[in-house]
């Protein structure tokens, strides 16, 4: 009887010890909730359906309105875009306000299957311009592994701001007690001084996958939306850019696996 009990314990513990669950991630700049080429046409239903189909564990969203006059123009009344997406997808939602805007707030959004310890950190703007922020959550997988996930949208105007924001964001990530993944619209490309300033143990999923596909659907195109991970803690399994017309950006998708010594 004791031997059977021991075998049962080994069976239950085995997958937890031997295998880490894959973490599916999306980062998406949602263009404040409307189609970019059709003014006042809502895009949240299409975005919600995409998330339901793909079932990522964590989602970082940028250009998020909360109870703004702009959202009222699009949706006939002021709405919190994250609350609406949370309701439509079943994910837990968090809005990280970067600034006051249009009678409400504007900033970052997170959708997670399971999370706690949500917080928003302000990012520096030494050159002025719009306030910027990053939203963080401690996420938990079905297999009980925990990691921190941060979403951000860096300055679109000044290199000095982006450099300061990169320094602040990655320095903060290094203080966290669990493995960290960062995602968002960084507003710089792979050949920029900001990109090259990021510590070498942080890897960008698109670069590791050798995928140079644009993520910003402008006339000339640009690759400015990234998923970063600490390569000491994670391995990349998959990366892709999802070409859907719901925003002026494309969602970026990655699958990571936590290294065994991090479990």
From TrEMBL:
Secretion signal, residue range per the UniProt entry: 1-20
Keyword set includes Signal: yes
GO molecular function: catalytic activity
Keywords for this protein: Signal
Superkingdom field: Bacteria
Domain Endonuclease/exonuclease/phosphatase: 26-249
Keyword Transmembrane: no
One GO term (biological process): GPI anchor biosynthetic process
GO CC term, one of those recorded: membrane
Name assigned to this protein: Endonuclease/exonuclease/phosphatase domain-containing protein
Organism whose genome encodes this protein: Algoriphagus sanaruensis
Organismal lineage: Bacteria, Pseudomonadati, Bacteroidota, Cytophagia, Cytophagales
């Amino acid at each position: 009887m004791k031997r059977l009990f021991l075998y049962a314990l080994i069976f239950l513990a085995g997958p937890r010890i031997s295998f880490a669950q894959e973490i599916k991630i999306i980062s998406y700049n949602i263009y404040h909730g409307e189609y970019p080429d059709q003014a006042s046409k809502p895009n949240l239903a299409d975005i919600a359906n995409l998330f339901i189909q793909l079932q990522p564990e964590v989602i970082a969203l940028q250009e998020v309105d909360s109870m703004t006059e702009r959202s009222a123009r699009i949706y006939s009344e002021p709405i919190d875009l994250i609350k609406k997406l949370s309701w439509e997808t079943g994910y837990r939602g968090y809005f990280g306000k970067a600034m006051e805007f249009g009678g409400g707030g504007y900033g970052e959004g997170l959708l997670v299957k399971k999370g706690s310890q949500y917080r928003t950190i302000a990012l520096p703007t030494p050159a002025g311009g719009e306030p910027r922020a990053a939203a963080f959550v401690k996420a938990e997988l079905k297999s009980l592994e925990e990691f921190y996930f941060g979403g951000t949208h860096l300055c679109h105007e000044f290199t000095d701001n982006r450099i300061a924001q990169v320094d602040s964001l990655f320095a903060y990530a290094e203080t966290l007690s669990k493995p960290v993944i960062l995602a968002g619209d960084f507003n710089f490309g792979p050949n920029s001084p900001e990109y090259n300033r990021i510590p070498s143990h942080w890897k960008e999923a698109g670069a590791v996958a050798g995928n140079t596909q644009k993520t910003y659907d402008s006339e000339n195109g640009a690759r400015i939306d990234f998923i970063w991970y600490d390569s000491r803690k994670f391995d990349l399994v998959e990366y892709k850019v999802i070409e859907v017309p719901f925003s002026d950006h494309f969602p970026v998708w990655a699958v990571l696996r936590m290294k065994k010594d991090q479990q």
